[in-house]
């Protein structure tokens, strides 16, 4: 069974068809890359999958379950995590607090218990901190745990966001341009981090990426979009050489 | 260690206050405690969840009237105060409904409307509230003992205020608190991490109103006589001023703000003797001063008295400017 199945997805904003009849699948443990020129509809597809944009037609199936009309927070609770193109961290919190928010779907206490500060809440909190720390350590962010997010450089913030998504222990992880705004060295680090996540039995991943080097290195499969349509899919090397893809890239 | 010493000293002073202060000053200290309770509630909503309320005086009113009516019917204080909190929390959850769709100024207007409606209900429901003639409120009777002395009532207020601050601190360290600040800082990412924003906003409104309702119960006893106009928009604005001046997004700011709110009128009384008669007799000095301080706070010290305090403290310690201290929340930095 595929982890994610997108079926004939259509999304229009006003008169503009951002996504038209897009369909693809991501298998269990697979890493797929969505590629395409700016405005191809890649981020819109991610937003539809994570429930932030309501599609006009088509379906999104997550582990066989139809999530097309499910609100974002419930989709997340089922085990889907994501990052954002422009980093969406909670700036007034420390690194570890950000990662702890990623653990939200595993919370056990209720509001009243939290208010009273019951011993069970404190125990759970210690437990959660340990897990958040483990997520940070796995990405080499341990020393930054107590720093405020706003103080960190872009490259580190990008990694904090990844740690936050991982901390939720997702079954499917959506990464919206993990290498955007990174230096060559940071890109290589990010690629290594993603490889390590896969090597340690991480979730299936769908990533939007412009850097073809990164796509070739990481992805099992690439799905090329242009003007809201799938123009090619298959192994990254093959997709890269596909005439339709080359034409779209060169602005034919 | 300095921190512990400071806390112990503060606790000792608060406990010894009845020995040190005259009755009038002690009454003002009770007021501060009551405002701390309401402020903890409002801070949770505005400072930590990023929602606004211009109707919090109404929750104070709901609490005050519930307490007065329940006491008159012979209910014991723990029961009537709990009822005040619960009823206000219920109203808060209802008022929170528009917050699921409205933001910023629109939410402010919706809560403002609620404030006007509540005052109208207090005035018109004469059978229960005594209408515009108001209601006298007898002193608290706790476990058969009448808290007739100022110091007795002060200890009650202090205990409730300490409880409210502990509850706020607990909440902020918990998953619920993190969910609220996540919604404040960036709502869409919060939702995509599994946080049900609608649910948590409602929770924030209910908890905030509940705390303010309990403050209202004490407030009714403190002022001894309640009438609808005591809970009008001016009081709502005072409550907002309190947490803004105290420092949005800081628990300590609640205490600073409450102290400020009580100290200003006292300072004005003293100042009146020194000012030229033409100015001293003007009405509206107090709102004008609140307004001025509010503007100055927003312009020069957006982190409020708490920010000022942190800066002075670190300067005293290091003999230099404050380095990367924890930044409080600023409205202007909100992610749209």
Describe this protein's structure:
The complex is a heterodimer of chains A (252) and B (336). Chain A has two domains: 1-79 and 172-187 and 204-252, Rossmann fold (3-Layer(aba) Sandwich), CATH 3.40.50.300; 92-170, no CATH class. Chain A is 39% helix and 25% strand. Chain A has ten helices and ten strands. The longest helix of chain A has 20 residues, at 119-138. Chain A is globular, with a radius of gyration of 19 Å. With 336 residues, chain B is mainly α. Chain B has one domain. In chain B, the strands form two sheets. A two-stranded antiparallel sheet of chain B has the order 1-4. In chain B, strand 2 and strand 3 form a beta hairpin. The N and C termini of chain B lie far apart (41 Å). The chains are: A alpha/beta (252), B mainly alpha (336).
Name the largest protein-protein interface in this structure: A-B, 40 and 37 residues
Our estimate of the beta-strand percent of chain A is 15-25%
Binned, the helix content of chain B reads over 70%
Number of domains of chain A: 2
**Major sheet description of chain A:** 6 strands, mixed
| Fraction of residues in β-strands of chain B | under 5%
Order of helices and strands of chain B: HHHHHHEEEHHHHEHHHHH
The ordered string of helix (H) and strand (E) elements of chain A is EEEHEEHEHHHHEHEHEEHH
Which strand order does the major sheet of chain B show?
Answer: 1-4
Distance between the termini of chain A: 37 Å
| Mean pLDDT score of chain A | 92
Given as residue ranges, the uncertain stretches of chain B (5+ residues, pLDDT < 50) are: 320-326, 331-336
Work out the number of β strands of chain B.
4
Shape estimate of chain A: globular
- The chain-level structural class of chain B is mainly alpha
Write down the CATH topology of the largest domain in chain A.
Rossmann fold
């Amino acid at each position: 069974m595929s982890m994610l199945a997108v079926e004939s997805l259509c999304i229009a904003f006003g008169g503009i068809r951002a996504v038209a009849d897009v369909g693809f699948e991501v298998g269990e443990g697979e890493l797929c890359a969505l590629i395409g020129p700016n405005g191809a509809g890649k981020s819109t597809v991610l937003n539809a999958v994570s429930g932030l944009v309501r599609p006009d037609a088509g379906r999104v199936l997550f582990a066989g379950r139809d999530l097309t009309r499910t609100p974002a927070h419930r989709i997340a609770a089922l085990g889907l995590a994501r990052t954002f193109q422009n980093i969406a961290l909670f700036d007034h919190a420390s690194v570890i607090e950000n990662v702890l928010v990623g653990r939200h779907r595993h919370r056990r206490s209720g509001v009243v218990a939290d208010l009273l500060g019951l011993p069970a809440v404190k125990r759970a909190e210690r437990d959660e901190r340990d897990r958040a720390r483990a997520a940070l350590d796995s990405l080499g962010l341990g020393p930054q745990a107590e720093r405020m997010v706003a103080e960190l450089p872009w490259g580190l913030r990008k990694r904090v966001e990844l740690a936050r998504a991982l901390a939720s222990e997702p079954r499917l992880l959506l990464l919206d341009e993990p290498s955007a705004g990174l230096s060559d060295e940071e890109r290589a680090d990010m690629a290594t981090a993603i490889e390590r996540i896969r090597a340690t039995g991480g979730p299936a991943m769908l990533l939007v990426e412009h850097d073809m080097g990164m796509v070739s290195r990481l992805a099992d499969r690439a799905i090329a979009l242009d003007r809201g349509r799938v123009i090619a899919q298959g192994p990254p090397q093959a997709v890269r050489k596909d005439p339709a893809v080359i034409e779209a890239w060169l602005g034919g | 260690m300095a921190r512990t010493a400071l806390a112990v000293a503060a606790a000792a002073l608060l406990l010894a206050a009845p020995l040190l202060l005259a009755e009038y000053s002690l009454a003002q200290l009770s007021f501060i405690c009551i405002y701390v309770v309401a402020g903890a509630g409002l801070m949770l909503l505005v400072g930590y969840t990023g929602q606004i309320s211009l109707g919090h005086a109404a929750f104070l009113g709901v609490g005050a009237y519930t307490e007065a009516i329940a006491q008159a019917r012979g209910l014991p204080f723990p029961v009537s105060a709990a009822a005040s909190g619960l009823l206000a929390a219920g109203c808060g959850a209802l008022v929170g409904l528009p917050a699921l769709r409205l933001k910023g100024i629109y939410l402010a207007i919706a809560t403002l409307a609620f404030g006007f409606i509540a005052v109208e209900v207090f005035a018109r429901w004469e059978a229960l509230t005594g209408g515009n003639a108001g209601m006298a409120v007898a002193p608290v009777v706790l476990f058969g003992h009448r808290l007739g002395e100022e110091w007795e009532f002060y200890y009650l207020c202090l205990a409730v205020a300490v409880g409210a601050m502990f509850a706020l601190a607990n909440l902020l360290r918990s998953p619920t608190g993190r969910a609220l600040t996540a919604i404040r800082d960036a709502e869409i990412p919060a939702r995509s991490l599994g946080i049900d924003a609608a649910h948590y906003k409602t929770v924030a409104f209910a908890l905030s109103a509940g705390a303010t309702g309990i403050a209202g119960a004490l407030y009714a006893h403190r002022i001894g006589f309640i009438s609808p106009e005591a809970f009008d928009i001016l009081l709502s604005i005072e409550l907002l001023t309190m947490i803004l001046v105290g420092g949005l997004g800081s628990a300590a700011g609640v205490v600073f703000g409450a102290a400020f709110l009580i100290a200003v009128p006292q300072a004005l009384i003293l100042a009146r003797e020194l000012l030229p008669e033409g100015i001293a007799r003007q009405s509206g000095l107090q709102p004008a001063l609140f307004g001025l301080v509010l503007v100055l706070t927003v312009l020069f010290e957006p982190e409020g008295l708490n920010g000022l305090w942190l800066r002075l403290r670190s300067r005293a310690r290091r003999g230099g400017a404050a380095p990367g201290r924890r930044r409080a929340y600023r409205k202007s930095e909100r992610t749209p």
